[in-house]
Amino acid sequence: MRIALFTETFLPKVDGIVTRLRHTVEHLQRNGDQVLVISPDGGLKEYKGAKIYGVSGFPLPLYPELKLALPRPSIGVALEKFQPHLIHVVNPAILGLAGLYYAKMMEVPLVASYHTHLPQYLQHYGLGMLEGLMWEFIKAGHNQAELNLCTSTAMVEELRERGIERLDLWQRGVDTEMFQPHLTCKNMRTRLSQGNPEKPLLLYVGRLSPEKEIERIKPILEAIPDACLALVGDGPHRSALEKYFAGTSTHFMGYLIGLELATAFASADAFIFPSQTETLGLVLLEAMAAGCPVVAARSGGIPDIVTDGVNGYLFDPKDHRGAIAATERLLKGQQERETLRQNARAEAERWSWAAATGQLQNYYRTLIRSQSMSSAA
After folding, report:
1. Residue 191, C-beta contacts closer than 8 angstroms, at least 6 positions apart
2. Among 7, 125, 295, 367, which residue carries the largest CB count within 10 Å?
3. In this model, does residue 281 exceed pLDDT 90?
């Protein structure tokens, strides 16, 4: 199969969407398919054998890490040369609109997938009044697709309630070869805790942006005075967070990738994830694969991954003491924490990227076969 993949974000950016797309492209190519990635220009021309067609763009005002790339006629030239059997648009927003257009023009099946809960993000950027309009925009784009994929059952249900049709689940995936419990390392723990490896170590990994609600971790630190917090990642909210966490045992690590990131997960006592805007929360699976017990908000796609009291702890985001109680319980129960670690790893081992991509390929083949039969008729 020849798959044209439109995405608003790709390498060299680091986030959960890029992680999923990176593994998907790699496995599609490995299985003999050909992929053309159309994305904002990040300077790369190829990834794992897939060609990348970069479209020049400009930084998004509210989120400078993201580039806004506008559709242009040269995309059509690239697609005409590639001759895709199917077009897959990830989070159709701006550049993705070209994918919707060319799927109709070239009469090939269109798949759209939903990864970023943009309507909820608006609340955190002072634009909540636009939420209804955003949902109408999302519905108009997604309902042009023959198949709409979500990464959690919660998002399938929410999008269905919002009037989006032809929905299905794209199963989760995690690199269990990279993220492993045995990578625990005293040197990394010392680094994360700023020289205090004997103290309880809390970890957050992800974007430093308002919608992640990282401020909600501060009361946990105040309730557990000897605990340290390491924030791994970067983003537009970093300077505000540095001021907010001033005077606490918080270390801003910046980005960690690959083995360093896997070692950070394995070396922490608890992974704290307060976000209520997650369509899945891929980073939770990475923590679990590394045997790092999770304390997370019971919201969005997170309960698809974390079973409270079995492989992590969930808290009610409306209960301001919920996250504190869950973290205290985790840190006090040594035997229970070890059981959670083992169960978390066992859950992660169920979800390989090969299986997730195999499921996606089956969706692709079904749509291409259906289109061929319709054309023949």
Report:
1. none
2. 295
3. no
Residue 111, classed as helix, strand or coil, is strand
Residue appearing with tokens 């076969």:
369
Structure tokens that stand for 8 in this block: 């608003």
Tell me how far apart the alpha carbons of residues 240 and 261 are, in angstroms, rounded to a whole number.
Answer: 24
Q: Is 159 helix (H, G, I), strand (E, B) or coil?
A: helix
Distance between CA atoms of residues 17 and 20, nearest Å: 5
181-348 falls under which CATH superfamily?
A: Glycogen Phosphorylase B; (3.40.50.2000)
The CATH class for the domain spanning 2-173+352-376 reads alpha beta
Q: With contact defined as beta carbons under 8 Å apart, do 268 and 203 qualify?
A: yes
Q: Is 150 helix (H, G, I), strand (E, B) or coil?
A: strand
User: ∠ at Cα 61 (60, 62), nearest 5°?
Assistant: 95
Calpha distance 354→360 (Å, rounded): 10
At position 307, the amino acid (one-letter code) is T
Q: For residue 325, what is the DSSP state? A: H
- In residues, how long is the chain? 377
> What residues does each domain of the chain span?
2-173+352-376, 181-348
**Fold: same for 2-173+352-376 and 181-348:** yes
pTM of the model: 0.85
- Let me know: does 265 contact 213? Beta carbons within 8 Å: no
Tokens of 203: 């970890």
Those residues whose C-beta lies under 8 Å from the C-beta of residue 289, and which sit 6 or more positions away, are 174, 175, 176, 178, 179, 180, 265, 344, 345, 348, 349
Nearest to 231 by CA among 163, 216, 223: 216
Q: Does residue 1 contact residue 86 with C-beta atoms inside 8 Å?
A: yes
pLDDT in tens, 44-82: 999 999 999 999 988 876 666 677 899 999 999 999 999
